[in-house]
Amino acid sequence: MILLSWNCQGLGSPCTVHALGELLRTHKPSLVFLAETKCKKNRIETLKRKFDLFGCCVESQGHSGGLALLWHKSLSVQLQSFGHHHIDATVYPESETEAWRFTGFYGFADVACRQRSWDLLSTLKNQSRRAWLIAGDFNEILDDSEKRGGRPRPLWQVRRFREALVSIDVYDLGFEGDPFTWCNRHPEPDTIFERLDRACADSEWRHKFPNTVVRHIPTTSSDHVVLSIDTENNHKPARPKHRPFRSRRVGHHPLTANK
């Protein structure tokens, strides 16, 4: 199974819709999470018909925000909860015993509200005991190696994100590709790169899908790359190339899983 997660930065542009269509055609994902759709429900309904998908959405607030979770008609998905910063669902690939949980996540962009992101993760943790995958734009980095250019991220800010992942017992799944997922696209020397988008999972989900690889797919229609989460990885060796927290621990808890 392939899942895509993308901060598309608006589905009103024909260029972005075309890029989405190309992603669907090329990668044939079973599940797609979109953040910052910047559109209302009727726009998502139009795209569902255009691409022959099922799905649900959270409407944008004015010209910002908006989420969508879309899935192939061969997949059974049950919505559990949603808000302006998440969509939580149970995925039933074949049977009830195979069911697992997916949360599409969009962290608060305002630093003053960032703790609300981590509080939301804690709340979601307590709502289900199924194997859990979380993917999206967390709007935060785990280490100073995940940022290039601009001012250094305050240590307390990074630490709180790390502690949030520890508290919900999930692991960063690593990635293949470019080390950063977002760029401000400013000319040098003002260019900033950060790894804001990631996929994380608990031990049960990792055990269920041990060969999973996350790939960063570049796109010209958004400042963010697309995350491709391949649970079968039939094409390349299973170990992602980048596991920045293989040996680093917070509170004796590894943030990145070792396979």
From TrEMBL:
UniProt-listed InterPro entries: Endo/exonu/phosph_ase_sf (IPR036691), Endo/exonuclease/phosphatase (IPR005135)
Coiled-coil ranges (or none): none
Source species: Sesamum angustifolium
Domain Endonuclease/exonuclease/phosphatase: 4-224
Region called Disordered, residue ranges: 232-259
Gene Ontology molecular functions: catalytic activity
Biased composition annotated in UniProt, kind: Basic residues: 236-252
Gene3D superfamilies tied to this protein: Endonuclease/exonuclease/phosphatase
Protein origin, superkingdom: Eukaryota
Name of the featured protein: Endonuclease/exonuclease/phosphatase domain-containing protein
Pfam families for this protein: Exo_endo_phos (PF03372)
